[in-house]
Amino acid sequence: MASTIIRRLVHMVAVLFGISVLVFLIFFATPGANPAERIAGKNASPQTVARVERQFGLNRPLPIQYALMMKKIFITRNLTSYVNLGEKVVPQVFKAAPITLSLVAGAAIIWIVVAIAIGAVAAAFRNSWIDRLLMVLSLIGISMPVFWVGTMANLFTQGIWHHTWLFSWVPPLGYVDFSKSPVLWFKSLLIPWITLAILYIGLYARVLRAALIETMQEDFIRTARAKGLSERQVLLRHALRCSLVSVVTLFGLDFGVLVGGGALLTEVVFGLQGVGYLTYQALETLDLPMIMATVIYASVFVVVSNAVVDIVYAAFDPRMRLRR
Amino acid sequence: MNPLLEIVDLAVSFRTSNGLIRAVDGVSFSIAEREILGIVGESGSGKSLTVLAILDLIGDPNAVVTGSIRFRGIELIGQKPETLRRLRGGAIAMIFQDPMTALTPVFTIGAQISEQIRIHTDLSRHAAQARAVELLDAVGLPDPHRAAARYPQELSGGQRQRAVIAMALSCNPALLLADEPTTALDVTVQAQILELIRKLRDDFNSAVILITHNLGVVAETADRVAVMYSGRIVETADTGALFADPHHPYTWGLLGSMPALDGIRRPRLTTIPGLPPALDRRPQGCAFSPRCGFVRPECLPAPPCLTGTMHQAACVIADHERAAARNQVLAA
Ligand SMILES: Nc1ncnc2c1ncn2[C@@H]1O[C@H](COP(=O)(O)OP(=O)(O)O)[C@@H](O)[C@H]1O
Ligand SMILES: [Mg+2]
């Protein structure tokens, strides 16, 4: 167990190093992407640019620049933005993280529960009209762009139907901290949760249905039937448990990516100032320190959630434990 | 005495795009309490479908089952799902061929056995678990407590098959359907598992239908034998009678190609030439005729019926010609 954890940590550090170097090179060493000119602003005199270069250490060799930036992110935590001069970057990421986490975790609960229900019902009634209907709905869910769904949701819940009994409870856009008011926190996030979950519900329901149908062909399913279990018990106890593995894998990746900033569009549409929103702003203004900070935060999350998945995996499926 | 199970004119067909194909055709047999019946035949002869039909476990929506299957006088074909479910794993239990894949990989052996016990009795979880350990002990698994806590893939093939048998026995079945229970195991383990199955009759009072493609297994274990070929029973008799005086040329072929259970092969191994016919290309007459060395005109228009009383065979070769013909095939 200890060796597994150590291996994980080494793995994580290696991934973080690789990603940070890559991002650093893209923004600092790409020909034409001169950060000093960008900071100095349009039409700045060469003297100004040179001064900025010195001030920000941009004239030093790249490895040194990289090392300095990492030090400022991880150790001194005083890396400042190139755009809003003087503003510290790391605290901003830490302020945005709970917002993203609230959004993604809530959506994840919704999509997992609903997708399992849909996948199981579709598999139980496979090839019937129920199955077909559910699969068409899933496909629609997958194909609707999240930005569009969010805009439509806003249009109805904030706009034309806001004053009907249906949506009068919806608070104005934006995030309300859980510690301030759990009820308002919930209300402000419910529509974003559903919006974000729709795509994944469709995806997971289809994946789970396919996995279930495949599992139902296995020999041990026949054994389960021969024991006297009802068809529902066979599906929910034996087949589902074995099929969830495929969903767990997907979930680890998707969850990590979303918490790492992949929920950007949802955050933007609903005015939630999460990590995705931060990344979006940083990219718009090419705020390099901010980009570095969010990217590193994101990769930490992807790697960590991957590690968590491996552990959950083993809990779900003893086959995985034995493979070690 | 009423038989425990009586099958009359069982047919299993599949709806395909080319119409209905018959995989099992006109199979009839019965089995008494505590009797061991062996069903033998090459793979594809319909043995598995025959026993799966008993509990409606074929599990293919295109399968059509007709005929009559009576268990203790109750008709099972067309029976309500709840009634069948109560029988499955209760009065009639099943053992499948491949112990590697027959158990759910994500539950422990003990959990899977006690699950079955709890379906059919109202024992507490704890009591069911204790009974599972007892059963594992009864089928000869060493250290049954630990075995109960293990996952299927942590056991060897033979141990797994013992666990499967323990599970099948958990509710004292009156009838055990064993579908090639030893085929996937190596020879020494095979003999142990057969010994175990033979003991079931004494310890658990179970009747057994033992499916195999190996006549040697039947010789060791069964009271009576039914030989199947291409979906039909071609010969059936008490085990002693069948081995003393086999009637059907297909049975001769099986005997000729039978390696002894001890693994020592005969000097000459007579194998049957050719392959069984595809289900949709079965000849009009006797299905074995394309591979038979004794075909006559009367074999070809329609399959011969099973004739005889105790020892039945579906062949036109008359009693007085049989020994000579058989010696041509089996002379060593
Ligand atoms: N679900 C199915 N659909 C179509 N054909 C089947 C199906 N199951 C079995 N068969 C065919 O029925 C025949 C008998 O199968 P089976 O009873 O499994 O044979 P055995 O157990 O004697 O080896 C085989 O030729 C097989 O191909
Ligand atoms: Mg078979």
Describe this structure in words.
The complex is a heterodimer of chains A (324) and B (332). With 324 residues, chain A is mostly helical. Chain A has two domains: 2-76, no CATH class; 90-323, MetI-like (MetI-like fold, Orthogonal Bundle). Chain A has helices spanning 2-28, 35-40, 46-55, 62-74, 90-124, 129-143, 146-160, 182-215, 219-226, 231-262, 264-269, 275-285, 288-316, 318-323. In chain A, helix 5 (90-124) packs antiparallel against helix 6. Chain A is globular. The N and C termini of chain A lie close together (11 Å). Chain B has 332 residues and is an alpha/beta fold. Among the domains of chain B are: 99-170, no CATH class; 242-331, no CATH class. Chain B is built from eleven helices and eleven strands. Chain B has helices at residues 47-54, 81-87, 109-120, 125-138, 144-148, 157-169, 187-204, 215-221, 239-244, 249-256, 319-330; strands spanning 5-16, 19-31, 36-40, 63-71, 74-75, 92-95, 175-179, 207-212, 224-229, 232-238, 312-313. In chain B, the strands form two sheets. Chain B has a seven-stranded mixed beta sheet with strand order 6-7-8-3-9-10-11, sandwiched between helices. A four-stranded antiparallel beta sheet of chain B has the order 2-1-4-5, with helices on one face. In chain B, a hairpin with a 2-residue loop joins strand 4 (63-71) and strand 5. The N and C termini of chain B lie far apart (42 Å). In chain B, 45% of the residues are buried. Bound molecules: adenosine-5'-diphosphate and magnesium ion (MG). Adenosine-5'-diphosphate binds next to helix 1 of chain B. Residues 14, 23, 41, 43-49, 60, 279 of chain B line the site of adenosine-5'-diphosphate (ADP).
